[in-house]
Design goal:
Number of strands: 5
Strand content: 15-25%
CATH architecture: 2-Layer Sandwich
Structural class: alpha+beta
CATH class: Alpha Beta
Strand order of the largest sheet: 1-2-5
Helix content: 40-55%
Length: 139
């Protein structure tokens, strides 16, 4: 999910990733595709939120990651360093990450294996979850 500084949705993605070795592998592939998309949109300051504790720690670390996801972690760090003037990686509680979970379910059960999609028009069931995240204005 890509949002602007007001929390409004700019784009969302979902996919059905084939041949992954673990849930963590799936998370790092999704993060990689996300930062690539954000860089292509020309954003310079981003906050990358995820509920994968190990991935957050890996992205925040400067040490060499020799794990099975190490090469993708390195690529993501590279993109964060060279494409953005500011990039914050933060852990988001799973309960606060319902939009991402909803998109993941969409990818797993609706999309064909090995495919992904980027949506500029986000489905209404996702927008309902997003609206719940936005601050209430006092108008």
């Amino acid at each position: 999910m890509i949002r602007n500084n007001n929390g409004e949705v700019l784009a969302a993605g979902a996919g059905n990733i084939s041949y992954v070795s673990s849930v963590l592998h799936t998370e790092v592939i999704a993060a990689y595709k996300g930062v690539l998309q954000v860089a292509q949109l020309g954003m310079s300051q981003i906050v990358l939120e995820m509920d994968a504790t190990m991935l957050v720690a890996a992205l925040k670390s400067s040490s060499v990651d020799r794990s099975s996801i190490g090469a993708l972690v390195f690529k993501i760090r590279d993109i964060m360093q060279f494409e953005f003037s500011s990039c914050t990686v933060s852990l988001c509680n799973r309960n606060c990450n319902k939009v991402a979970d909803c998109l993941a379910l969409h990818g797993a059960y609706v999309l064909e294996s090995g495919s992904d999609m980027l949506m500029s028009q986000v489905p209404s069931y996702v927008m309902d979850l997003v609206k719940g995240d936005l601050p209430v204005s006092d108008v």
